[in-house]
């Protein structure tokens, strides 16, 4: 039963299917005062490159401010997502998809076959760029009416920011700025709108269970309600993003390409009892049937042997969706 129907029934306790085997909040309060790195994108380029390189090594997570994406564009996208979720269930179900594999746009409540269900529903848009292309227009919901325009403007802006960040990440690895993008041949861009409704017993559930993102790099915005946590040195740290900041995290493909120099960060989202949280994740990824992803030869030498098998992104996603996406379990499958 979807979360919103449970809430409409006025439940005061969470059904079995949503209850985590180990209470998620216990033992996770440590380190809450630590803040993930904040990087100002108007600093001199050398400073940005160094700050990003450090954040990638230490955290796999950071937030950017003064990033050049207009707040009005972000707000328009958050509103479009909210308006989608506010549509009658019957309308949303027109977009229902059981498996968010590449090339599928879909509304759903779960993305794998795990026995415990996350406290969320989501809309996945598999193709976001270029926004004016017919393929993207087709993959975009036509309800609510302003969704297409808002998402086109948002994706255009996020695409520019994503590419800029990939150039900094490349340089931070000691490579040419266009090295990562060139190796992908074509930069794919998809998007996930998450809704986390209030939960009567938030301490028993996860809004989104622990995972690493399978793609190269992800950008995230939310509506200001906290919930996201990142695992750092064994402790779950709540991300308190600054107003207007965009949260950036490294995915598994970047860990592979960097030969483990940069780690994909394990993260999750907690539920809360008061407010609905919306988040929008933009995923930058290799084309599904594109080039094999492997450590850059420049980063592999006698002392640092290649740690990963070469893998095609479509095959990687198949492991991701089959493995229930828990913790770092996916990338270990392609470790040598
Ligand atoms: C994701 C994700 C975190 C959040 O969609 O991959 O990690 O805070 N979202 O919603
Ligand atoms: Ni994620």
Automatic annotation (TrEMBL):
It holds the Pfam family 2OG-FeII_Oxy. Residues 187-286 form the Fe2OG dioxygenase domain. GO terms for molecular function: dioxygenase activity; metal ion binding. It comes from the Eukaryota. Gene3D superfamilies: B-lactam Antibiotic, Isopenicillin N Synthase, Chain (2.60.120.330). InterPro entries: DIOX_N, IPNS-like_FE2OG_OXY, IPNS-like_sf, Oxoglu/Fe-dep_dioxygenase_dom, Plant_2OG-oxidoreductases. Keywords: Dioxygenase, Iron, Metal-binding, Oxidoreductase. Belongs to the iron/ascorbate-dependent oxidoreductase family. This is 2-oxoacid-dependent dioxygenase. It comes from Selaginella moellendorffii (Spikemoss).
């Amino acid at each position: 039963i979807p979360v919103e129907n449970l809430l409409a029934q006025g439940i005061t306790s969470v059904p079995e299917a949503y209850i985590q085997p180990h209470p998620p909040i216990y033992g996770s309060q440590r380190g809450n005062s630590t803040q993930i790195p904040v990087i100002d994108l108007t600093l001199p380029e050398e400073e940005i490159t160094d700050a990003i390189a450090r954040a990638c090594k230490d955290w796999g997570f950071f937030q950017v401010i003064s990033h050049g994406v207009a707040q009005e564009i972000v707000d328009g996208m958050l509103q479009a997502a909210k308006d989608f979720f506010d549509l009658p269930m019957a309308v949303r179900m027109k977009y229902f998809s059981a498996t968010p594999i590449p090339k599928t746009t879909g509304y759903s409540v779960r993305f794998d076959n795990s026995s415990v269900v996350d406290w969320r529903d989501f809309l996945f848009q598999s193709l976001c760029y270029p926004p004016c292309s017919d393929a993207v227009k087709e993959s975009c919901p036509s309800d609510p009416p302003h969704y297409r325009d808002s998402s086109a403007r948002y994706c255009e802006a996020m695409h520019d920011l994503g590419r800029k960040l990939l150039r900094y990440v490349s340089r931070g690895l000691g490579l040419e700025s266009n090295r990562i993008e060139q190796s992908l041949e074509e930069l794919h861009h998809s998007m996930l709108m998450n809704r986390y409704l209030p939960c009567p017993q938030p301490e028993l559930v996860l809004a989104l269970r622990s995972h690493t993102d399978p793609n190269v790099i992800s950008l995230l915005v939310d509506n200001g309600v906290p919930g996201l946590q990142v695992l750092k040195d064994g402790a779950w740290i709540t991300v308190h993003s600054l107003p207007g900041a965009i949260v950036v995290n490294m995915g598994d493909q970047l860990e592979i390409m960097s030969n483990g120099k940069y780690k994909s960060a394990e993260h999750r989202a907690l539920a809360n009892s008061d407010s609905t949280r919306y988040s929008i994740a933009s995923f930058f990824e290799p084309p599904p049937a594109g080039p094999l992803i492997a450590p850059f030869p420049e980063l592999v030498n006698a002392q640092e042997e290649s740690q990963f098998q070469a893998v095609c992104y479509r095959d990687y996603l198949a492991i991701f969706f089959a493995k229930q996406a828990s913790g770092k379990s996916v990338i270990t499958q392609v470790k040598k």
